[in-house]
Amino acid sequence: MKKLLLSVFLLSGLVLMTTPAAHAQFSIKGGVNLANFNDTDASFDSRTGLMAGATYSFGIPMSPISIEPGVFYAQKGAKISEGSVETTTKLDYIEIPVIAKFDFILDNPMLTPHVYFGPYAGFNINAEQEISGGDSAGTFDIEDEVKGTDFGVVVGAGADITKFNVGIRYSAGLTNTFEDGDGKNGVLSLVAGVNF
């Protein structure tokens, strides 16, 4: 799977270098993450976090499709409770998605809805476990227990409204988050930003 995702990233880069852009657009975006772990037997609750970053969209000539690489800071993780003890896993990533975006051209030039999908690579920059309640309360570094990279896919939908953009997206991790044990990152994001 990692080889497949690497191939997709390399192909996306090749497309960016060889395709003349009909238009290019820089955007700054931020939003709220509702993060959890998928493909695990444990019952987790979502962790609310932040995301912020920037994208650069390259339009493909004579097409409603554009390629949009980006760089984001993304807070992920999850919570689990056992009696009065709540454990929150806090994982922070630098995430690099490369998506293909399809614009729906309307008669109203001020509104452009779109859908998108593509792969992402995430690089862990912080891993902590916060325990509240019980005798083991505190915050603990779990960097050695968390994999340094996270690969997955992003799907989403949104709209450009004049110079602003809004959207909703879901990031699904395809690799286990932890060195030992199950659990893959899954994040629902509400996003808004400004186009330049």
TrEMBL record:
The keyword Repeat does not apply. Keywords: Signal. Residues 24-179 form the Outer membrane protein beta-barrel domain. It comes from the Bacteria. Residues 1-24 form the signal peptide. InterPro entries: Beta-barrel_OMP_2, OMP/PagP_B-barrel. This is PorT family protein. SUPFAM superfamilies: OMPA-like. Pfam families: OMP_b-brl_2.
